[in-house]
Structures are given as structure tokens and as C-alpha cells.
What we know:
The chain is α+β, with helices and mostly antiparallel strands. It contains 4 helices and 10 strands, in the order αββββαβββαββαβ. It has a 5-stranded mixed sheet with strand order 7-6-10-8-9, covered by helices on one side. Strands 2-1-5 form a 3-stranded antiparallel sheet, with helices on one face. A two-stranded antiparallel sheet has the order 3-4.
Amino acid sequence: MRSLLVLLVLAASASVAAAQGTYRLQPGDTVEVSVFQEPDLARQVVVAPDGQISFPLVGHVRAGGLSLQGLERILKQRLEKYYNTDLDVTALLSSTVEPRTLPTVYITGEVAKPGPLELVTPTTVLQALSMAGGLGPFAAKRRIQIRRRVQGEDILFPFDYSEAEDGHEIVGDIRLQDGDVIIVPERGLFE
């Protein structure tokens, strides 16, 4: 009985691995990326509607349409210039896009829970950041951006989270629309 259970688990693992090898990333997918030699780089990233992800030291990478192995290869190539050793980069699919009926925004970068966020009621940027578990410890609070695609053009709206913390009137706390991407960058060395 125990050996049958082990065989079933191995078969399921093999089918998941095979599926991840042929799966092509698409907007809204969440990918867990880790670098064995640098645990501080481990994080979940969300493929934005334009097909890109943001990763520390690498910047923006077009991930839409890539397999997980393709994404690993690109991240490894771009990270290697910062390290003297051969890196082991792993990308695992955490969640995929499901057909949606509610308007959805995407939150990426230095937040506790990056990923897609379905909007049940009209939602502002500050409310969405709260629903994503708040900002991470390395978030650039003054450089948050909301990217909205209008007639094929990207429009960027700045948002300064520190204004909300200080109790000032919040400029840029716009009402979100379907497909908006909230980008919370990592703060710089002297921020």
C-alpha cells in the first residue's frame, strides 16, 4: 500500500513538472523565483498585463510567452554579471490566470502579497495596497506607480504612500480600473 502511494505521488509530481515545462506564462500568472546562492532574492513576481515582470538587479523582463525554463535562463544570464559563481535560478508557477468576471488589478513589487486582485467594489490605490498586505520593508514609498493602458498607450500615475502615513491629503489615490498595474519598486540605497 505504501509503495502504491509513493508511486502515485511520483506520477503526480512528474505530470506537474511536465506541465510546467510546456506552459507559457501569461499576464496575471504568479511565479515564485529563487536563487539558491542568494536567498534574499527569493520572491513572488506577477506577470503584468504587458507581459513583463520586475526583478531586483535585473529590472524589467518580458516573461509573457516564455516557459518557466526560459524565464530561469534569462534571469540567470542577467544576474550572472553581479556574481562570481554559477547561479542556480528556479522559477515555479504559483498560480495561473483563471477566467475572470470581476475587474482585476495587478500588484507587483515590494508588497506582502503580490498578484492579481479582484475588485468587488470600487477601490483606490491605498485600499488595494492594504488588501495586498501592505508594503514590504524595502518598498520605495514615494515612487509607487499605477500603470494604465488607454487606447494602446501606457499612462503612469504617481502615488506617494508616505503622504498617507503622514496624514496629508493623498495625491494620486485614484480609483482603480480593470487591468491597472500597481508597481511598488524597491527603494534605492540612499532613499
